[in-house]
What we know:
single chain; mainly alpha; 12 helices; 79% helix; globular
Amino acid sequence: MFKILAQSIFLLIFFIAAILTANLVHPNNELFTNQAGKVSIKKGVIAILCYIGIMLILPHILSPIFVSSYLIKNGISPDTINPDSDAFDKEVYNLMVVNLNPLLEIIIYSLLTLIIILVLFKEFKEDFITIQPKLFIWSLAGILIVYVGNVLGSVIEALLGNGGTSTNQEGIEQIFNSGSFGLIVTIITTVIMAPIVEELIFRKVVFSFFKNNLAALIASALIFGFIHVMSPTFSAFIDFLTGFAGIGDVVNELFFIISYSLMGLGLGLTYILGKRNLLVSILTHAAINGISILILIFSR
């Protein structure tokens, strides 16, 4: 009970501090006030709606279609993949996961990447044209900045007793461990597609909605963190309402917003230091994800 209370209080303080900083601080430093490379509100809203629709809604539409098609094609009863059924067959369930999860992942990310780039193609192209060699130094520095944030997040989680792996990370590892196709899909989506899409949305678009970059930095970090924990937190909340989980499970899932937000903060700071050039933060993001994949590969 004490752990849940401590985590809840810390989350509340975290959000209040972030909101107050974003709204009350008005920096005069040019580094935080320059609004170069803005995206129009219209294009930004369209890009965000596309992201939400494809990333958060479409999987819930496609997944049942994929599952039912697979079961019908192979003449398998739906009960065999229902963990609550007496007919549950773990071998059938694992086989379906191996075949369907990577396929769904690559379809979703391919569609998402294509549409977001099309919507923001002008801004995407401009940053690649104006890139300067010296900006790559900030990409390297960004890796260190993000890892400092990761260490800080891990320390906070350890102090407040929230160990373990986030559901989002567990999902990535499940696809990674599902076979050769899953490994290839994980590399493509996490090292190439996710950095492009997430930096376009959470840096290029979100930064355009604020008058100063300090407010944008904090807001984009919080949104980045929330997106990565939203689905598992909501699922845990539904389980809590139906009696299948405790409030501690909800708080534990939500608590991972700290580590993801600190990662978003590091990427946002890299974006600012890199003169708001998207390629800088994309390379940093890709490197961070690539290192994580290498760790998974060598730990197998």
